[in-house]
């Protein structure tokens, strides 16, 4: 799979993203990673969707400049929209995980005519009711940053490890951890804080894209009620649970997850949808 690395200038900062060259033309897919994850979470998904261009956005990249106007789901959705404009993408499919899923909801409700199909993974319309273990780990991380402490590798590893079941090979694990460690922790904390203050329930009805809501049964961050709110609030939505998968099933169940996504982005209904 050939990948182009691209960067878009934004006021005071920039947005980086990675574009796959498709084997055949197809609707472009925008992939938005979770917080404490990274754009490399989507590697296997991009390989599976080889018949269409995929845009794996690095949501951490604005941290390299003046990120104050971008640090939140609304600002990041605006940055993604600017990328669509710069790339000449009139209509896309969007797949978002966790905070990436919140950004996806903002985008799909703000410019519904530009999102053809939507996949929301391990996310919700707000962060209320996040499962206690994950919420406590994030609280400890934010508190350390606000106290001026440098996020330790151990703290980052603890949080990254909660995103999926099991641990990938050493090289892949290091890629995931380093993506977080090299990002300004104040930026990471600011985006999380903004996400916690946002309630998208009133905006779900504005999402017109057929939507697949995916949750792993072993998700340590989001409960089934988060998926239920999305599935009932978005006019054309269905939900599916992936047995044994965690918060980021593209990592721990890559083949099964990619099949679900490919089926939804096409015309076939995913097996097990309800």
UniProtKB/TrEMBL annotation:
Q: Which InterPro entries match?
A: AB_hydrolase_1, AB_hydrolase_fold, Carboxylesterase_BioH
Going by the entry's taxonomy, the superkingdom of the source organism is recorded as Bacteria
What's the short name of a Pfam family annotated to this entry?
A: Abhydrolase_6
In this chain the AB hydrolase-1 domain maps to 29-259
Q: What is this protein called?
A: Pimeloyl-ACP methyl ester carboxylesterase
Organism this protein belongs to:
Pseudonocardia parietis
